[in-house]
């Protein structure tokens, strides 16, 4: 065992910053990391055992205790729950002879729950030893487990042929479907691969490329919407021996899966975007942070990178441009939603817990290994290729005044045609509902759990005008027909997740509770607000649902939703959104549950709730009584 660990660390030059890779290799070999492994790693990498332990315990896909021969991670996001998750879970427990969170006595099966694995359009889905299994049913579970028991590998146990497009590529072989429903400019199949790098870069200086992207007003497609050209501009002007381009392929927002499709069908476009970004900013180091859930694409993506190297599109003097040296390495994550935040992602890339850094300094000044680092989303990078090819004015021909271009939407939930839709910014919710074949719609969740839940009923229908007003970012309150609200940075910004719920859904009990569980599970625990308030708010919501609530509870929830905004990163800052936005847009659902006459709360015990929250995250409560 000692020799095997030494072989693994040597493969990464005993570099502590490659701890993620080292741990992944150890898991591939033994399924977990033992005490003895940690001791040896500490010696080899010059890290304390505590540091190594901290990293291991942070990520869902790492373990300190032995797991099964087959480890089944079943996705528990809301759309999976709507499509039979509970039945599948029960069938897995029966077939595997163990319960979730444990390993069967014979050591064959480990069962675990995991949040969105990027398959919302084909759930319930699970990952079994890195292989994705979609559209699970109780029958399929029985067959699958029987196959595994009979000696088949997960690869052999795939119960259907492989999916469409590159999902059937020998380097992928996944039963995943792209479900591309609408294409415009980004998903245009007829583009010439690497045309910009091969023939256009030479004719432009790096500054000119930045100007094109800046003039296009492209904003980051991951959700935050920071101007891409400006980010490149800032990154370029910081003096440094090295600069870094990172492609953020850690799409973990429940309901989002468009980056998965881009990486499957347009990896060349994403990598070309990275090369263009490197040329423009003077970067020589390229990293793709690929979420562990997409590990089934790892070999395929590396194969594309190898081809690029052979064709002179990576390496030294790229495309014949003197001293343009740049290469790309893919780094796998290990399951942590917060790593989608750029500084947390950088921490993870350096082999640490994915905890967001305090800012400033921002990554463009001091990022990966303290080099100026530009982190761009998968879709953003793909879009830059189209912009440099066709020009800023061409790009400005799509979208609205404040939201230019097109946007990839991942649509799932109660609709006939879940999948990927490329639409212009400014598309209305009404159009999305129509395109996706949804009817009897009660609510649309825009931007995932951290976004907003909007009602699709018109204000007049509800007769609750006072309650159905929305705050625009300007602070102005607007009343508007909800059907006609538009996807745009000024009305409904989104990273692309759209989940539709029909009138049969219990929005509070099913949806909001599921979203709150997600935030509670994914908090990194650094900030007391993010560590405690989502848990306490969920308790309060449960109290309301149990019929013990009073009106003041609703007001408390709204005011705690404001306090949580002081959290360090976006995860904490938006973790109250499921409750707050459902109160703002569906207050009548809360009102139905609370006792009309009572105006005080004599049941809710804040101290007890804080203790429960602390015990959940493994910390001690510390009350000071006067
Ligand atoms: Fe961690 Fe939450 Fe604080 Fe972000 S807001 S740093 S996830 S505790």
What does this structure look like?
With 626 residues, the chain is α/β, with parallel strands linked by helices. The chain folds into 4 domains: 2-58, no CATH class; 70-160, Glutaredoxin; 201-395, Rossmann fold (3-Layer(aba) Sandwich), CATH 3.40.50.11540; 406-591, Ubiquitin-like (UB roll) (Roll), CATH 3.10.20. It has 24 helices and 17 strands. It has a 6-stranded mixed beta sheet with strand order 6-12-11-17-13-14. A 5-stranded mixed beta sheet has the order 2-3-1-4-5, covered by helices on one side. Strand 4 (126-128) and strand 5 (131-133) form a beta hairpin. Helix 9 packs across helix 12 (267-281) and helix 20 packs antiparallel against helix 21. The longest helix has 18 residues, at 528-545. It starts with a helix and ends in a 9-residue tail after the last helix. Residues 459-480 have low confidence and may be disordered. Residues 338, 355-356, 523-527, 530-531, 567-569, 571-572 line the site of iron/sulfur cluster.
**Number of structural domains:** 4
Tally of alpha and pi helices: 24
Bound molecules: iron/sulfur cluster
Lateral arrangement of strands in the main beta sheet: 6-12-11-17-13-14
CATH topology tier name of the largest domain: Rossmann fold
Helix content range of the residues, please? 40-55%
CATH architecture of the largest domain: 3-Layer(aba) Sandwich
Shape: globular
Number of strands: 17
